TrEMBL record:
Lineage start: Bacteria, Pseudomonadati, Myxococcota, Polyangia, Nannocystales
Residues in HTH lysR-type domain copies: 1-58
A Pfam family the protein falls into: LysR_substrate
The name this protein goes by in its record: HTH-type transcriptional regulator YofA
Keywords, sorted A to Z: DNA-binding, Transcription, Transcription regulation
Gene Ontology terms describing biological process: DNA-templated transcription
InterPro entries: LysR-type_TF_proteobact-type, LysR_HTH_N, LysR_subst-bd, WH-like_DNA-bd_sf, WH_DNA-bd_sf
Family, per entry: Belongs to the LysR transcriptional regulatory family.
SUPFAM superfamilies, per database record: Periplasmic binding protein-like II, Winged helix' DNA-binding domain
Organism: Enhygromyxa salina
Highest taxon of source: Bacteria
One example GO MF annotation: DNA-binding transcription factor activity
Amino acid sequence: MNWDDLRYVLAISRDQTLSGAAERLGVTHTTAGRRLRAIEEALGVRLFDRTPEGFMPTAAGQDIAEVAERLEGEVLALEGRVLGRDAQLRGKLRVATMDMLFRRYHGAFSSFMTRYPSVELTVVCSDNEVSLTRREADVVLRMTNTPPEYLVGRKVGRVEFAVFASTELYERMGPDATYADYPWIHWDERLNMRWLDAWLADNAPNARVAMRIDFQPLLLRQAIAAGIGVHFLACFEGDDDPGLTRVGPVQSDYSRDLWLLTLPDLRNTNRIRAFMDHIAERLCT
């Protein structure tokens, strides 16, 4: 068996589901299932029993998972030693993310530069998708529940959203005010944000639209803080601002996973692997 096979067995043993193992490994559910079948066929032995409680390791599967766990510890320790003393970890690195994610996690970027000062880091903040295949970036930190299958990486968090108002507006409206009672900030009609029209029709019928703005998240947050109206914000942004208050509960339908992604042929580049490991370590702990 090779180390990649062992990683799949270990991940499935830990999560007991293909979906959980796929998230851990940064692959799709289909890929995780296909790899498990291939490993079992190659070994000629069943490694997991499929039960209502999940994938339970057989004696053979448990044996392999225990060996894989020991090897994983040694591999991670080795990588840490090598990367930590690699004076040649240098070169250009281009990372694309969203403005609000950089504001939230700028400390992780800063500590990466302190750790690897010879890496020439460029950060591109845009709410538009960039193309890794056209080398517009080497790594992306993005919110998505369906990462493209042609990219590899890992899930490093989840972003929740809720409706926020300025604290002054919330106190003026009172705790019993409904979504429909509040003035709303909406997007410019040319942006064709029909999802918000549908949400308002269901949750805030006949609500007044106080102002429309271009798709600029920082401008949106400033408009909310000014008391002009209410809108969705990431909970980590709204909850950290004492001048803002949640108007309602988390809107779980709009929650998004947070992924670090790169191209398969770039993932073993030292500076890219070091960046992804560093950011994952900071965001997952």
